[in-house]
Amino acid sequence: MLEVINLSCVRGTRRLFTALNFAVNPGELIELRGANGSGKTSLLRILSGLATPAEGEVRWAGKNIRSLGEEYSGTVAYLAHQNGVKDELSALENLRIACGVAGNDLSKVDARAILAQVGLSRQQNLPARSLSAGQRRRLALARLLTSKATLWILDEVLTSLDDTAIRLSRQFIGGHLNKGGMAIIATHQELELSADRMQRIELSK
């Protein structure tokens, strides 16, 4: 279980949010809403362990994530608003290298199968710089399918996707939740996910 306890975030001289409390249990979805500048991405980075809160703490299985290090980072898959795709590498190379960095060896055969799942079979050997915005987002999503992480933290996951890719994304996320995974998703769009447990958190600007 992930617990957020009295969390506050300050950027420059501005307090984005304060005294934020919630918990996420297996199979649960958190939908994070708020206007641009309200602190959604800052909150996701704190939850991912990439940023430090001004006050409060984030706990995983009862322990502060700051004390867990790799033990926590190995349980989290963070997909930022930016795709984190290397332009000079092919789609296939991007996926395999990202998996290797995460400690998950991925064969070419398995990588091709996953790229096929996200509709990138014909683009697998193209350099990422030649992919459209939607195809780059699909490539980023493909990393989720290789992840063994329990907690998915996703920033505007449906951005730049066409209708087919949006349906696939909902299917992937729903499957993750059905298997007992957890997801925290910042979005401006309706997720239209059927989760057994769901919370909506609104950050005000």
Tell me how many strands there are. Answer: 9
What is the straight-line distance between the termini?
28 Å
Rg value: 17 Å
Shape designation: globular
Helix content: 25-40%
- Supply the number of helical segments: 6
- Alpha-beta classification: alpha/beta
Widest sheet: strand ordering: 6-7-8-3-9
Rounded mean pLDDT is: 89
Uncertain parts = none
Strand residue content: 25-35%
Element order, helices and strands?
EEEHEEHEHHHEHEE
Major beta-sheet overview: 5 strands, parallel
How would you portray this structure in words?
The protein is α/β, with parallel strands linked by helices. It contains six helices and nine strands, in the order βββαββαβαααβαββ. β7, α6 and β8 form a beta-alpha-beta unit. α3 packs across α4 and α3 packs parallel to α5.
